[in-house]
Write a structure and sequence with these properties.
Distance between the termini: 75 Å
Helix content: 10-25%
Radius of gyration: 28 Å
Number of strands: 46
Largest sheet: 12 strands, mixed
Number of helices: 12
Strand content: 35-45%
Length: about 700
């Protein structure tokens, strides 16, 4: 027995000795995941937060809007390799110490009915054989060695948050072809010593994994500090202040509950402002801060949650050096009753301590075109980005977006390209497309929540409102937090998947970050926007009302960028006179294409197509029109279709039931020749309509 104790003691000493040689270990990363104090200061061991994804490589420079906003963000990777006689697609590679902090992929592979997908291979420290080899979809949805909540199924997607650390290098690949993927990782400075992950860690650190998982899913309330309570009616256009204890302290826990005659408006017009050491660092509508806009929508994440009764909870730590004050601004036309409890405790201030910030931005509604980048926030100075909310009001029962995130950190500004370039808004927030979402797609996980999915039935007579109404996503960060030393900017593309005169969206964006006292940002208080009525579908419909004839749900080809086109083609938007013609063009305009020879072509790509569709193409016949070959996904559907006519008319061409390829339809219209009576190789394209079978 004594001998056994000696052996055990010696083993423990060896374990401790091994642990001491590392700055970052698997155990320390697990503990960091639930340590809220870490993000309140500059990282102890410097690292860059980086991302690798399947974004469309046509995006090279913001000076080229066609490529910069290219969709079809699938199947792109770093390179192909052959290992052990099998092809692999390399998704991510890092030379030096680091940690994989998040991996995302859909729960299907290429075809929506393929739920198996390829194996993922993770090579650590230059080893020829992968340290981890398992099915990618099962790994990311919690059905492999990483259990929930470290790997979770969200909605048609999986998210892996288990830290996979490496001391020298890391390469991630999949067997065969890549699909959609996003990989976030830390790249540490070379001098940082990082313990390399080993599969047996899952058993060795089972107790730590269990404790971390429990804390992520059921966070422990902080109760040791001083409670500051507030319960009062705040009159219209008035401000109430909640002073916090003097001296070096930190907010550890906050709860708020609103009561008002108009709760939707109160959520937007009741503004939370927090002033630390005489500097306002938080200015945000209370509802937007908690991801509740126009309604109370319950959810639960590691840092924030909203209860069914409307109680809003925040667990971010907010240090201050000398003084703090919470101000509640009621910008509405009616009184609001607010109940609040803030827990404050003493804090040890250091030169590396950061202040908490929350900023809010909105704008006029955006039509589908032109596509643009919206900025959550741009910061000059030093800090860490820790989360954001995305709100979009959609008047249509269709999919509202395809916008990619573009995150610039420090040197990214000089090279004019982000180190984080994503694959779609829903992917950034941890879920995926595949079908038109409904309210059944709402979910909460420790770091991600699809808080609200449309479902607005007022004034709607269709079968399912899908995303009609408010859609709200939120993401908070732990190991995937993004430090910056000089400058930071988070952009998201306002990319409406729909097209046409009623494709209009209203956005509101909230960003959460920590920063030094000297850090400055570009988001001043938007008092007028918070004071005004909460935007509703009816407001958007008033903007889009038009007397023009239109083909409902069609995609206007004159409004979108072609995928490819022959050199020398002249393309222009041409107004068409619907009053003087026997036929009508949707929205009274078309894409006029002046070709010069046989084989000249133009092509378009339409993504997020997961099911067979009947395809209807609307073209123009005229005395100068050519004969056309029309392809869908490189398959010739209509051969030498003669667009010549002595009359200028819009014609419907039924291309039949078509099967998407890799979840897209690609349309190619090519000059095949010309009628002997035609005087040119021109052709006109009005719109295209994809109808459910």
């Amino acid at each position: 027995m004594f001998t056994g104790l000696i052996i055990i003691s010696l083993f423990c000493c060896l374990q401790n000795s091994d642990a001491q040689q590392y700055d970052v270990t698997f155990k320390s990363l697990l503990q960091e995941m639930t340590d809220r104090t870490v993000m309140t200061r500059k990282p102890e061991f410097p690292y860059k937060a980086l991302q690798s994804s399947s974004y469309n490589r046509a995006a090279v420079t913001p000076d080229d809007p066609v490529g910069w906003f290219a969709n079809g963000d699938q199947g792109f990777d770093l390179r192909k390799e052959t290992n052990n006689g099998k092809q692999e697609s390399v998704l991510m590679e890092c030379d030096g110490p680091g940690v994989l902090t998040r991996i995302w992929t859909p729960f299907f592979y290429k075809d929506f009915d393929n739920r198996e997908g390829p194996d993922i291979l993770i090579y650590l420290d230059g080893e020829e054989e992968p340290s981890i080899r398992t099915n990618m979809i099962r790994l990311l949805t919690g059905e492999s060695f990483a259990p929930p909540p470290f790997a979770v199924y969200t909605c048609r997607a999986g998210d892996l948050y288990l830290p996979i650390s490496f001391g020298k290098s890391c390469k991630v690949s999949v067997e065969g072809d890549s699909f959609f993927y996003i990989i976030n990782y830390r790249a540490y400075s070379p001098e940082v010593k990082v313990e390399t992950f080993q599969p047996e860690f899952m058993e060795r650190y089972q107790a730590v994994l269990t404790q971390t998982g429990k804390e992520l899913t059921d966070p422990t309330p902080f109760t040791k500090g001083k409670k500051v309570s507030f319960s009062k009616s705040v009159s219209s256009r008035q401000t109430e202040a909640i002073p916090l204890p003097k001296g070096t302290s930190a907010i550890r826990h906050m709860t708020f509950k609103l009561s008002a005659e108009n709760v939707p408006q109160a959520l937007r017009s009741t503004v939370l402002e927090i002033v630390f050491d005489d500097k306002s660092t938080v200015w945000c509508p209370l509802g937007d801060f908690f991801g509740n806009v126009n309604a109370v929508d319950p959810y639960k994440t590691w840092v924030r949650e909203v209860h069914p009764d409307g109680t809003m909870v925040c667990r971010w730590i907010m240090p201050y050096r000398k003084s703090g004050e919470i101000r509640i601004h009621n910008l509405s036309t009616f009184s609001v009753k607010l109940e609040s409890e803030i827990v404050v405790s003493p804090w040890k201030w250091t030169d590396d301590t950061y202040y908490f910030h929350a900023n809010w931005w909105t704008d006029e509604p955006y039509m589908a075109n032109p596509v643009r980048d919206m900025t959550f926030v741009e910061v000059k100075g030093e800090g860490i980005h820790v989360g954001d909310n995305f709100v979009v009001l959609n008047p249509l029962p269709w999919w509202w977006g395809e916008g990619d995130e573009k995150i610039y950190v420090d040197d990214d500004f000089d090279r004019r390209f982000p180190s984080h370039f994503g694959t779609g808004t829903e992917d950034y927030y941890g879920w995926a497309g595949g079908v038109h979402p409904t309210r059944e797609d709402e979910f909460s996980t420790p770091f991600l929540a699809n808080i609200r999915v449309g479902g607005e039935t007022r004034g709607f007579t269709g079968e399912n409102p899908h995303t009609r109404g408010y859609n709200i996503c939120t993401r908070s960060r732990s190991l995937d937090a993004i430090p910056f030393n000089q400058r930071f900017k988070l952009d998201m593309e306002a990319f409406n998947f729909s097209s046409g005169p009623d494709a209009i969206l209203q956005y509101a964006l909230t960003s959460f970050w920590y920063g030094s006292m000297e850090a400055e940002h570009n988001r001043p208080p938007m008092v007028e926007a918070a004071s005004g009525p909460v935007p509703q579908i009816e407001d958007l419909e008033k903007i889009t009302q038009t007397n023009n004839f239109r083909i409902k749900n069609a995609i206007e080809l004159e409004d979108i960028y072609p995928l490819l086109a022959s050199d020398g083609l002249i393309r222009k938007v041409q107004a068409m006179d619907n009053e003087k013609s026997d036929s009508k063009w949707s929205m009274a305009k078309q894409l006029s294409v002046e070709a010069v020879k046989v084989k000249d072509y133009v092509s378009f790509r339409f993504g997020e197509q997961y099911h067979p569709k009947k395809v209807l193409l609307y073209l123009t016949t005229s005395p100068v029109s050519a004969k056309l070959n029309i392809y869908i996904n490189e398959k010739l559907i209509a051969e030498s279709w003669d667009a010549y006519s002595n009359k200028i008319e819009c014609r419907e061409l039924d291309l039949g039931l078509q099967q998407p390829m890799n979840n897209t339809f690609e349309l190619r219209v090519e000059v095949a020749g010309k009628n002997e009576k035609s005087s040119g190789y021109h052709f006109g394209l009005d719109c295209i309509l994809f109808k459910d079978n």
